[in-house]
Amino acid sequence: MQLQGIDLIIFGVYIVGVILFGIWIANREKAATASDYFLAGRSLPWWAVGGSLIASNISAEQIIGMNGSGFELGLAIATYELMAAITLIIVAKFLLPVFLKKEIYTMPQFLEERYDGTVRTIMSVMWIALFVFVNIATVIYLGALAIEQLLDVPLYMGIIGLVLYSACFSIFGGLKAVVWTDVVQVVVLLLGGTIAAWGILSFVGDGSVFAGISELYRALPGHFEMLFEPDDTFISKAATTELATGVDFAGNPTELVAGDEIQSSFNLLPGMALLLGGMWIVNTYYWGFNQYIIQRALAAKNLPEAQKGIAFAAFMKLFIPFFAVLPGIAAYYLLVEKGIDVDIDKADQAFPWVLGNYVGEGFRGLTFAALVAAIGSSVSSMVNSASTIFTIDIYNKFINPGASQKRQVTMGQIAAAASLIIGAIVAPQLAGAGQVFQIIQEYTGFLSPGVLVVFIFGMFYRRGTSKAALVVILLGVPLSLFFKFIMPDLAFLDRMALMFLISSALMIGLSAVTSKGGGVAKNTATAEGLVSDMKIRNGIALIVIVIGLCTAIRLFMQPVPGVPDWAVYLFGILSVAVLALIYTDKQEDDYKAIDLEPSLFRTRMGFNIAALAVILILALIYGFLA
């Protein structure tokens, strides 16, 4: 069902209104300096930080992609949102204070201050490639897919429209224009998403949303399972369509055979790994070290304001599964339980189908506007961050080190435009994908374990060296691909945990043989005013236990079909070896180690209460469903 009449008018008015607002912001407060353009002059209040975080995060891959995964897998996919809430609290308390202390613009800039310029440059290139070819391309594709269904226009027209829409306030206005349009769009996003979920859940529950949720829980208990077992499977809608038509989504003869539509739920969401294991790598990398997310916090007025904004975002994350997962489950219910023809070819079309059929006239246009708002916010944020990294970490460093402030802003605008264009060219190549949200997670997972180790050890492990960090980064992607090839049945979250253990062992071992020392005189374990060495060791050991050792124990107790026994033993041996290295390491501090004062990690009472509330809510959710 396509938008028409009043829905088209509401949608058009909203889109034009946001474009005009973004242009007005960009012209009212023109970016005169690099700080203005890339960090909004470090002037954002807490509510702008929190709202922009959510608007940048919640996009097509969540609203469309997670509803697609909800259609096939169920509520377990919501773990990405629920666990993100507690991850945000951890980032605000332990990671953000270090970044703000260093007064950095970009994540690669931090790597140079802690390690060296080579590490910074390599990570800059990797991040730009990830943003453009994976993040920007997938968000544009999913958004264009929804536009194709609801406006009945070709996919390429949707792509062009999204590029032009995002460009209006992401290229010329910089971060300030992006953030202030985010604040408007997050309100519309939450309202529109709620309307869509309310519409289909009310239909399922004969007029009652709560009755609708209760009916879904009764009829589809498997879709409310939060922790999968190794033998849990699902039916892939994309593979089913391909088998039925005999051609893939590119129009080529299918290579699938009967039975290929039955796929492993556990491989995508491997049980306890969602609570103790690889999920911590996904979330900590994304919320702590992802430029287009953390950039909002770096632009806050001060640390307390940034922490309040992140706590605000954490509470909003707890609500997002209501409209980012439940509509997809409801669509599956209508197909399986009610026999209604859910006219979709693949899972990622579930939310646009819900929007076209179960949202009332007028509200449909507003909800679709909310979806486009989410896409525009995320694309603009990614584009701004890609241009920030290119300008600060590559252009200023290698091409024009003496560039004026005005020239840096101009180069940032050119880089932003280039990122949008390249992402748009890549986007159509995703047309044959099934659950695009899962594709994003897996491809990001090739990079994230090594990045997490380099940052965590760079912040808290005083002995880490630049040569060790360089090796960890360079080996991360090839080793991940190697283990994917030799152990295809190992869940990608578990593979990330394995790479985390290998990267940690390399970081400590190589640091021991490449250490330059030089910091021991002023940074001994008992140095007055600094966090003690034993507390730091205990903290790193806790991370290794939560991610690595817990994965090893789970694999011992819950063998996964297709994963060889030697791989399980490898997890256990590596976990014990890394813990032993942490506590037996006697080398001197690296000369670029960061001094960490205990006062740096003290938080205000309001933040502490918010953190406790988030933990209690999560405990109740998992206590009831898991």
Radius of gyration: 24 Å
Determine the number of helices (DSSP H or I, runs of at least 4 residues): 27
- Predict the CATH topology of the largest domain: Sodium/glucose cotransporter
- Major β-sheet, in short? 2 strands, antiparallel
> Approximately what portion of the residues adopt beta-strand conformation?
under 5%
Could you explain how this protein is built, in words?
By secondary structure, the chain is an all-alpha fold. The chain has 2 domains: 1-228 and 269-434, Sodium/glucose cotransporter (Up-down Bundle), CATH 1.20.1730; 438-519 and 528-595, no CATH class. 71% of the residues lie in helices and 1% in strands. The chain has 27 helices and 2 strands. It has helices at 6-28, 34-39, 46-57, 60-72, 79-102, 107-114, 117-151, 155-170, 174-204, 209-219, 237-245, 265-268, 279-289, 291-298, 303-319, 321-324, 326-336, 350-358, 363-399, 405-426, 436-445, 448-460, 466-486, 492-514, 533-557, 565-584, 605-625, and strands spanning 233-235, 262-264. Strands 1-2 form a two-stranded antiparallel ribbon.
